[in-house]
Amino acid sequence: MMVRHDATDADSVPEREDRLLDAAFTTGDEWTLRAAYARYGALVYRVARNLLTNPADAEEVTQEVFVSAWQGRSTYDPAAGTLGAWLVGITRRRVIDRFRLLEREQRARTASRAEPVAEITDGDADRVIDRIVVADELRRLPQSQRRLLELAFFDDLTHGQIAALTGLPLGTVKSHLRRGMDRLRTRREVDGANA
Amino acid sequence: MPTPEDPHQPGTDDARRERLVLFALGEPVDESFERHLSTCAECSEDLDAYRHSVALARAGADDRSALEDVPPPSVWAGISRTLGLDATLGATLRATLDESRAGTADAAGAATRPTAPATRSVPYDVGPRSWSHPRRPDEVNQARYRRWRTALVAAAAAIVIGVSVTAGVLIGRDHGSPAAAQVLYQGQLSQQTGGPANVSGHATVHTQGGGLAVSVDSAGLPLRQGYYQVWLYDPAHKHMLPIGVLGRDGTGTFPLAADVDLRLYDIVDISAQDYDGVYTHKTTVLQGPLRQ
Predict the structure, then answer these.
(1) Which of residues 121-150 of A touch B (CB under 8 A)?
(2) Reported pTM
(3) What pLDDT is recorded for position B200?
(4) Does the beta-carbon distance from A139 to B141 stay under 8 Å?
């Protein structure tokens, strides 16, 4: 799918920093791992946390993801996709591996199939990943856009009500909503489950 | 000449997408636009994409893991241990940045000075805070983000101009911390409104005997009837954690419980307390944020 970049938003400071980190990750400098963890650690953790029941499993998966990403950093190609998308892809595989392991353990313990384990399907994983990528991007939007989108998403206000509430002109509300939505869309298409 | 209803007329793509966004959010559109949508592949693809984002954002509000969820510090510690990383790296970056800010590495400063507006390019000065205006979780995130950006900008400096900073440089720079310990965070403590003037202090979080400890030194705190209590503060949840009482020489080292999340408790506070059986926080005399 064609990803549309809004010139002013795509060139924002966080966006440039993300691309800088993409390019630097393969250099092997340890700071890039630190920066990657600071930038994406919570994202990876939240994906794992929402798919696995036990927080300790989510913590271990998060650790595994960054360890294996660092050890396999030579296989990361910034031209092929963002570091965020690459890490999310690793997280997805690790979560599913972990889930299968837990499932085997449980089956061994109960020694019967009487108690089927709820399964994580690829579709479940993708939906959770996309949700969390969108939530993460929403959090990173400029405050002006984020606030208006939250009013539209979670308070179900129309753009007219948002304008009345915030005192902003209608045109400004519409353009902030549009810019914010374009960012969410771009980020989901770039870093989301189907990246 | 395109009619005003034609959503694809030149120069109106933003307006076209604004209408699609409002429709995706659940607002009604006029009939002619709705007719157009049923025949226009580009518009209906855009609408689907926007609707998908709206659905994901709304569904995300019910996620088990809240937006503010961060992995506990043990996760990074495990990564660092498994990979045998240099634990002093964060401080190395800080040293690099201090150097470039002080003008001793002009090339680094020039190479990394962001071209964005100044308000976004000063990652370092979070500034003193007072208890009467605790930061919102939002601001905490921004402060954390700024802190990370500091590391990134400094690291970029190192790469761009090929500066190679060794741990040795930083240990030499790292005054005020025990020699063999590794410093994870540190911060200057500054005097607070309502507290005594001409006071200063410095706090470090460092390794100690397999765990972590906070060391505080201060200068200028007046002798008084009472004692000075050292706290860690979590501004997101407005939680305060007392960690010990400052010695009469204005210093002290306080071991930390293993599960204190320093990503949350990232402010050191010293308060003046009285011997009156009241153990709640009284008057802040020194305070400052911890940084890597």
Answers:
(1) 127-128, 130-132, 134-136, 138-139, 143, 149
(2) 0.56
(3) 87
(4) yes
